């Protein structure tokens, strides 16, 4: 497993040095892995400290700031900090008002933070300890006060930090923290394990179709192994468990924290957020605030957790209070606006109906269905090619476009011109990448030429093919030899035009076009790409034919099968 580190023994110190370098108003103690607010005010309010093993970034150092933590104590990866480190943090930031320690419910953290609290009290520093045990996945396994503390701890940080900054006493701050912890439930799901820098191998293994439900944040397995489920079902499982444990009822006011575990992209977190908000509203709950991001991770673990916090007006105000902690995401406003109607001025799509098809329209429809079927059948091949020298989406894009063509109503095939423009519209709407605009532009230009030259003779079709290829070149700036679809399309159009001009039949001319397209597509394997994503690979793309050119040769060959049946 590759990691961007130096010596594994130096990971934590070097990480904290890097974090502090970009966080004005914070400092790192010289002999301990403790980040503190710096400088501190002379008249200090109650100090708030938290921490634990490293590997949970941005927790806990990312929450050091006015209005959240006064100090964060970091241990080795997934290892509690020592009592001496915690005590050093307390002594560095606590004034006469004392300190409140927020501890996730893991044995090492409880022991070391608890011991440090006793040592601090011995030195005359008032200290309160609040333990967060929000992992509802363990509800049927251990007693409530023995559950793990996971991502819901971040919400407690915010409540406590704001309360302390407002001038409340240590007893009041601690009670607010305990009250918040009682109303938070969290549950996680992992799609795979994480890898400790010093170990270099995963903590557990999962099959490609397996997940772990109810995992902790230290790379340990969950309480249940399951087959991979759609995001909506996973969210419903987590929400149902949390809602039952908290005893949520219709009308309760809640906030939502969607937390990535370290290797979950924002795209997936947004899908989870959508499902969670929908599930909460369907339960009749008032979602006052929501946040989505990576707040308390497990190194590079793929997966997420949901935290639900039933709040009152006081707690909501504390969540809304300002803080300059760099990792706090803001106020978490929720947008409940329904989608608004787009007002694009586009040509209306042909509507289903009983419109009769001209013989030419029927032939175009038959040819288009053959091409669409061939592209769908070639999805895996095109995906493999594009993965080697692109971004891997060509196969799915072509299949999606082909399906859109197959779904066109009969009215779309009334005439060749209407058919070409309808296919262009379908591809424009169904393919968001470069292939959609290229093919749509080509089909629209060809459609106009066909419409202006009725009836469309073989020569008109040859001219339309050439115009379509020119449209692609004009739009993207590519030329033959640049290793693009044009390396198949241009030879094919030239061969077709030349054969038609010599008086050959359309069937024979199209066979020449097929041969030229296939030869042109194969030749791209020896070309160095000059345009598109493959150009970023340079010589590394040589040896693999261009996926776009291969796709063009596939549908051109499929059209020939249909033409031969005329």
UniProtKB/TrEMBL annotation:
<dbReference type="InterPro" id="IPR036117">
    <property type="entry name" value="DhaL_dom_sf"/>
</dbReference>
<feature type="domain" description="DhaL">
    <location>
        <begin position="362"/>
        <end position="561"/>
    </location>
</feature>
<dbReference type="Pfam" id="PF02733">
    <property type="entry name" value="Dak1"/>
</dbReference>
<dbReference type="Pfam" id="PF02734">
    <property type="entry name" value="Dak2"/>
</dbReference>
<dbReference type="InterPro" id="IPR050861">
    <property type="entry name" value="Dihydroxyacetone_Kinase"/>
</dbReference>
<keyword id="KW-0418">Kinase</keyword>
<protein>
    <submittedName>
        <fullName>Dihydroxyacetone kinase</fullName>
    </submittedName>
</protein>
<dbReference type="InterPro" id="IPR004006">
    <property type="entry name" value="DhaK_dom"/>
</dbReference>
<dbReference type="GO" id="GO:0016301">
    <property type="term" value="F:kinase activity"/>
</dbReference>
<keyword id="KW-0808">Transferase</keyword>
<dbReference type="InterPro" id="IPR004007">
    <property type="entry name" value="DhaL_dom"/>
</dbReference>
<keyword id="KW-0067">ATP-binding</keyword>
<feature type="domain" description="DhaK">
    <location>
        <begin position="7"/>
        <end position="328"/>
    </location>
</feature>
<keyword id="KW-0547">Nucleotide-binding</keyword>
């Amino acid at each position: 497993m590759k990691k961007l580190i130096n010596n594994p023994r130096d990971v934590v110190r070097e990480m904290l040095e890097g974090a502090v370098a970009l966080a004005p108003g914070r400092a790192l103690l010289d002999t301990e892995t403790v980040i503190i607010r710096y400088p501190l005010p002379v008249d200090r309010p109650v100090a708030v400290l938290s921490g634990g093993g490293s590997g949970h970034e941005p927790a806990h150092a990312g929450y050091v700031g006015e209005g959240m933590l006064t100090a964060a104590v970091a241990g080795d990866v997934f290892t509690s900090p020592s009592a001496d480190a915690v005590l050093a943090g307390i002594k560095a930031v606590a004034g006469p008002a004392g300190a409140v320690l927020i501890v996730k419910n893991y044995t090492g953290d409880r022991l070391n933070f608890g011991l440090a609290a006793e040592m601090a009290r011995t030195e005359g520093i008032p200290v309160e300890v609040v333990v967060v045990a929000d992992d509802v996945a363990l509800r049927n396994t251990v007693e409530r006060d023995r559950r793990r503390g996971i991502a819901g701890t971040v919400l407690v940080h915010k409540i406590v930090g704001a309360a302390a900054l407002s001038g409340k006493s240590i007893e009041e701050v601690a009670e607010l923290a305990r009250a918040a912890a009682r109303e938070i439930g969290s549950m996680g799901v992992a799609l795979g394990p994480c890898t400790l820098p010093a170990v270099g191998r995963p903590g557990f293994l999962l099959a490609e179709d397996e997940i772990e439900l109810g995992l902790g944040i230290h790379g340990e397995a969950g309480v249940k192994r399951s087959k991979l489920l759609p995001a909506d079902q996973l969210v419903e499982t987590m929400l149902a468990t949390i809602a039952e444990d908290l005893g949520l009822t219709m009308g309760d006011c809640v906030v939502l924290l969607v937390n990535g575990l370290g290797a979950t992209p924002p795209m997936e977190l947004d899908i989870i957020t959508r499902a969670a908000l929908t599930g909460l509203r369907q339960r009749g709950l008032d979602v006052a605030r929501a946040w989505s991001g990576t707040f308390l991770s497990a190194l590079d673990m793929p997966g997420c957790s949901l935290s639900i916090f039933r709040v009152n007006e006081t707690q909501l105000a504390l969540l809304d209070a300002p803080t300059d902690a760099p990792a706090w995401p803001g106020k978490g406003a929720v947008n409940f606006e329904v989608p608004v109607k787009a007002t694009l001025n586009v040509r209306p799509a042909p509507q289903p109906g009983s419109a009769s098809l001209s013989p030419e329209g029927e032939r175009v429809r038959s040819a288009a269905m053959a091409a669409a079927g061939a592209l769908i059948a070639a999805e895996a091949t095109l995906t493999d090619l594009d993965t080697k020298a692109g971004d891997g989406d060509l196969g799915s894009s072509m299949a999606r476009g082909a399906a859109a063509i197959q779904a066109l109503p009969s009215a779309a095939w009334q005439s060749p011109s209407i058919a070409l423009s309808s296919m262009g519209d379908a591809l424009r709407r169904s393919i968001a990448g470069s292939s959609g605009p290229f093919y749509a532009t080509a089909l629209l230009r060809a459609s106009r030429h066909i419409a202006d030259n009725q009836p469309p003779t073989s020569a008109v079709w040859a001219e339309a093919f050439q115009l379509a290829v020119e449209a692609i070149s004009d739009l993207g700036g590519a030329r033959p030899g640049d290793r693009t679809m044009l390396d198949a399309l241009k030879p094919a159009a030239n061969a077709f035009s030349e054969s038609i001009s010599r008086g050959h039949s359309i069937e024979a001319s199209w066979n020449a076009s097929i041969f030229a397209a296939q030869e042109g597509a194969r030749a791209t394997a020896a070309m160095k790409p000059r345009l598109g994503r493959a150009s970023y690979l340079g010589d590394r793309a040589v040896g693999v034919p261009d996926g776009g050119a291969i796709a063009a040769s596939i549908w051109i060959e499929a059209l020939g099968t249909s033409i031969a049946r005329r």
